[in-house]
Design a protein that fits this description.
This protein has 120 residues and is mostly helical. It has one domain: Winged helix-like DNA-binding domain superfamily/Winged helix DNA-binding domain (Arc Repressor Mutant, subunit A), CATH 1.10.10.10. Helix content is 39%, strand content 3%. The protein has six helices and two strands, in the order αβααβααα. The protein has helices spanning 10-19, 29-35, 42-50, 77-88, 101-104, 108-112; strands spanning 27-28, 63-64. Strands 1-2 form a two-stranded parallel ribbon. The protein is globular and about 40 Å long. The protein starts with 9 loop residues before the first helix and ends in an 8-residue tail after the last helix. The structure holds a DNA duplex (13 and 13 nucleotides).
DNA sequence: CGTATGACGAGCC
DNA sequence: AGGCTCGCCATAC
C-alpha cells in the first residue's frame, strides 16, 4: 500500500539521518539540521530526539552538540548513559567531557561513497 | 491561531 | 576560557 499521505515530518528525517550514523562516530545537532536543509533548525533537531520514542533503532547517543560535548547534562542519568554508550564505541572524552569532533565527527557523504573526508 | 518549550549555535563581554 | 543573550526552527497545547 503505497498509502500515500504518509508525510514525513522533520523528526522522521532526523531519525533517518541519525540512523545512518555508524558506530564510533558522532554528529552534531547543527550538522544534522544542515543535512536536512535547515542549518538553523538545530534546536528542532534536539527536540526531535527528545520526542524519540522508546525502542527506536535510532542511535540518539551519537548526536552531540557543536562543542563536542553531551547536552542535556541536566538529565544526569541520560547524559551518563550517552557517554557510556559512546565510550563503548571507542569515542574518547576530554577532561571537560568533550570529544574530538575533528576525529569522530561523521559525515553523511561518507556513507554516500564520497572520498576526500579521510578520518585519519 | 498564538504562545511556550527545547538533548542548539554563534556572538559578545 | 567561561558565561550570558539572542535568534532560529519545528511541535505541543
Amino acid at each position: 500500500m503505497a498509502g500515500g499521505g504518509n508525510r514525513e515530518t522533520f523528526y522522521d528525517r532526523v531519525y533517518e539521518l541519525v540512523r545512518r550514523c555508524p558506530p564510533g562516530r558522532v554528529i552534531t545537532y547543527g550538522h544534522v539540521a544542515v543535512e536536512l536543509g535547515a542549518p538553523m533548525a538545530s534546536r528542532a533537531v534536539g527536540y526531535a530526539l527528545h520526542n524519540l520514542p522508546p525502542g527506536s533503532d535510532v542511535p540518539w547517543w551519537r548526536v552531540i552538540n557543536a562543542s563536542g560535548a553531551i547536552s542535556f547534562k541536566n538529565r544526569g542519568a541520560q547524559a551518563d548513559l550517552q557517554r557510556e554508550l559512546l565510550e563503548r564505541e571507542g569515542i574518547a572524552f576530554d577532561l571537560e567531557g568533550r570529544t574530538d569532533l575533528g576525529r569522530f565527527r561523521w559525515w553523511p557523504q561518507e556513507d554516500a561513497g564520497a572520498p576526500g573526508t579521510e578520518p585519519g
